[in-house]
Amino acid sequence: MLRFGLGAVIESPEGLTPLSRVTTATYNAFMPEQRSATVAIVGKPNVGKSTLLNALVGRKLAITSAKPQATRLPVVGILTTEGTQLVFVDQPGLMHPRYLLQEVMRAAAISWVRKSDAILYLHPGSGGRPPRLESLLPELGSIKQPIAIVRTMADRFPPPEAVPSSDENRPVFWASGLTGDGIPSILEWCRAHAPIRPFLYDADDLATQPQRFFVTEFVREAAFEHLGQELPYSLIAEVDEFREGSDPLYIRATIYVERETQRRMVIGKGGKTIKTLGEYARGKIEELFEQQVYLDLWVKTLPKWRSEPHALARFGFSVPSGGSA
Ligand SMILES: Nc1nc2c(ncn2[C@@H]2O[C@H](COP(=O)(O)OP(=O)(O)OP(=O)(O)O)[C@@H](O)[C@H]2O)c(=O)[nH]1
Ligand SMILES: [Mg+2]
Q1: What domain count does the chain have?
Q2: Which of 42, 46, 284 has most ligand 1 atoms within 8 Å of CB, for mutation?
Q3: Distance 142 CA to ligand 2 centre (A)
Q4: Whose CA is nearest to atom 5 of ligand 1?
Q5: Are 20 and 65 found together in one domain?
Q6: What is the residue with the minimal CA distance to atom 13 of ligand 1?
Q7: How far is the CA of 101 from the centre of ligand 1 (A)?
């Protein structure tokens, strides 16, 4: 049985400490030496961050899409092996924000970069040398944590003959989140940079976010997969009912879009589109939860939710007081 989080975490200077766990010296004294690290996965949109997170932890936790900006909230995946716990955090892509949602997404990514122990900076194998990470994050000035550059999509863009092993003294890995090539070397680098300290989570925890979070994410992935260019960006989902213990697991969720015309498009002729979305999302949810699911999907409008601080807060985004990130 997979373990998910309760959705409740305490922010601590060292990273994240789950509500139920107390990392005291007493606890530490009875444990063999442990290492743990929070590893931020960063880069521009659509470079393969979420695909890499899934490959690193060996489960599909994060949604992926050929369209950019699929990830809106950081997704945490935990891998505990060989006395070391790696807490990977997949980030929204770094870009110049155009509306409040994008501002909040960027702020979340920056906040995780700040509190991580190590950073994986992703850049596609194509497209020449990556810009310096600091140039994408001018807010941070210099970055003190160890940074490894990961050239993604190595199955499509293999490394050139004379590939440098480091760039500006940062190690470079060529990897494919799809084939798994290069993943062991990245894990080895992450383990080598994990400080000696107790695990942040239970050894068999896989994720910190609650099951509801993954339901809404997979509904969004369905939208990215099946709806036209702009529609997925105006869409968000919320779980209204989650009948714990029911079999199949009953989940009622609502998709919100910004306009009535979009609502009609999501429903489709005779409900055909919403049915397709529901079937797609249900398949992914069942795979992750390892149980049968009944997904009851509805569609409503919520005008301008992407620029509305209250709406964003309701959907789980940290909106600083004053409404702007
Ligand atoms: N061939 C190949 N495609 C990949 C690889 N990694 C990612 N992709 C594809 O690239 C696209 C973007 O991947 P994502 O993992 O969603 O990228 P991301 O950086 O998380 O994107 P955002 O969340 O939008 O910032 C998807 O279509 C992936 O299937 C890879 O290693 N090889
Ligand atoms: Mg992503």
Answers
A1: 2
A2: 46
A3: 25
A4: 153
A5: yes
A6: 48
A7: 21
Distance 211 CA to ligand 2 centre (A): 18
Ligand 1 nearest atom to the CA of residue 177, by list position: 31
Q: What is the pTM of this model?
A: 0.91
SS3 of the chain: CCECCCCCEEEECCEEEECCCCCCHHHHHCCCCCEEEEEEEEECCCCCHHHHHHHHHCCCCCCCCCCCCCCCCCEEEEEEECCEEEEEEECCCCCCCCCHHHHHHHHHHHHHHHHCCEEEEEEECCCCCCCCHHHHCHHHCCCCCCEEEEEECCCCCCCCCCCCCEECCEEEEECCCCCCCCHHHHHHHHHHCCCECCCCCCCCECECCCHHHHHHHHHHHHHHHHCCCCHHHHCEEEEEEEECCCCCEEEEEEEEECCHHHHHHHHCHHHHHHHHHHHHHHHHHHHHHCCCEEEEEEEEECCCHHHCHHHHHHCCCCCCCCCCC
The one-digit pLDDT tens for each residue of the chain (325 residues) are: 467 765 433 333 333 333 334 444 444 455 678 999 999 999 999 999 999 999 999 999 999 999 999 999 999 999 999 899 999 999 999 999 999 999 999 999 999 999 999 999 999 999 788 999 999 999 999 999 999 999 999 999 988 776 667 777 899 999 999 999 999 999 999 999 999 999 999 999 999 999 999 999 999 999 999 998 799 999 999 999 999 999 999 999 999 999 999 999 999 999 999 999 999 999 999 999 999 999 999 999 999 999 999 999 999 999 977 544 4
- 79 within domain boundaries: yes
Domain that holds residue 101: 3-206
State whether 184 and 86 are in the same domain. Answer: yes
Whether 157 and 185 map to the same domain: the answer is: yes
Domain boundary among 153, 180, 206: 206
Closest C-alpha residue for ligand 1 atom 32: 153
Q: Nearest ligand to the C-alpha of residue 94?
A: 1
CATH number reported for the structural domain that contains residue 277 in this entry? 3.30.300.20
